[in-house]
Structures are given as structure tokens and as C-alpha cells.
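Researcher: Please predict.
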Amino acid sequence: MGAFIILFAVIFGGGLLYFLFNKRNDFILKLTLSFSGAYLLGITVTHLIPEVYSSDAEHIGVYILAGFIFQILLEFFSEGIEHGHIHVHSKHSGIFPFTMMFSLCIHSFFEGIPMADVSQRQSLMMGIAMHHIPVAFALMSMLMQSGIDKKWALLSLFLFSAMSPVGAFTGIYLGDWLVNGLFEKVMAVVIGIFLHISTTILFESDSDHRFNIIKLGIIISGAGLSLLV
């Protein structure tokens, strides 16, 4: 319980950083995203994929592919905010982006479900937190720059921050039903989501598709940390 409250607070705090740094620093945001993308890719390859393939569940690859495609579908509505893209359209100024919030919350909810597995909880929590801090910041930036009322922006941030813990509680509540064959399939879907997000972040972390030495060091650090958890 306490760990999930901390996860919520960390993500919510990431969004509140907008009010301290409301002049966007694209370089810092890209570095943070690069670190989180490398870490997500690291835990996916070294921890999550071996675990699901060591289970007795069938057609794991199909579920991984389904998760990958599912994330593409979600990004059709969220416009890529999951990996730090901020799109402010003047013609929609002041109009709340319901479809974007819905897809973002669905994405976050599914990411939280595998945290029901105690053995993977620490690495998953770290990955989700590091990934969602810049996403929360991007969410607040987009909402505030779009002219959304501050109270609705904060409510949206609260909802987004709560979705991964809610997903974790859902996984815990379903308990034995998930463990009996379905958990590995849900995990495989999340792996597909992680693979899409992490690779997209790494490939798009620079507009000209080049990595400078700082970004390379950040990526190596993120991948290295995934080996330690």
C-alpha cells in the first residue's frame, strides 16, 4: 500500500514540476526521457521477457505483438504524449482533450497490473515512475498551454497519477484468477507496450536522429540501472 502511494506521489510531483519550470527545457526533458526509455527497455529485455517465456503460457509472442499494436492505437488518440510529445493546437484552445486523457489513463492502468507480481514490483515501479514523471510534466504543459482551467488540469494529473496504482490494486484483487494462466498474457501485453514506448523514445530522442555524448551516457546509465534491480 505504502509503495503505491509513493508511486502516485512521485508521478503527481512530476506533473507539479511544471509550475516550477513552466518554461519548457526541451534538453532536460529529452535527457529524462532517454534515461527512462533505456531503463524500460533494459528491464523488459532482462527481466520481463525471460519471465513470461519461462512460464507455461502459450502464444506469448502473439500477446507481445498485440501490446505493441495496442500502444500504437492508443497513441492515435493521445498524440504520443506517452513519450514526451506535446501538441498544442490553437483551434482547440480551452477544449478539454477527453480522448487523449482516456487513452493515456488506459495505457497507465495496463502498465500497473503486472505490479501485482511481488517479484517484479520494485523494477516495474521504478520503470513506471521514471517513465511517467516526464509524461506527467508533458501532460501539465499541454493542458496549461491549451488554456485548460488549472483545477481541471490538476484533476487530470491526479487521475493519471492514480491509474498505475489502481491497475496494481486490480491485479492484486484479481489474484488467483490472474495467476492461473492470465497473468503472463497480461504481462506480455505490457511488454509489447514497453517495447513500443522505449524504442520510440530512444529513436526519437533527437530531432535529427543523432545522439550526443551526454545522451549516450544517460542511455547507458538507464540500461545499466536496469541490470541492478
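Model: The mean pLDDT is 83.
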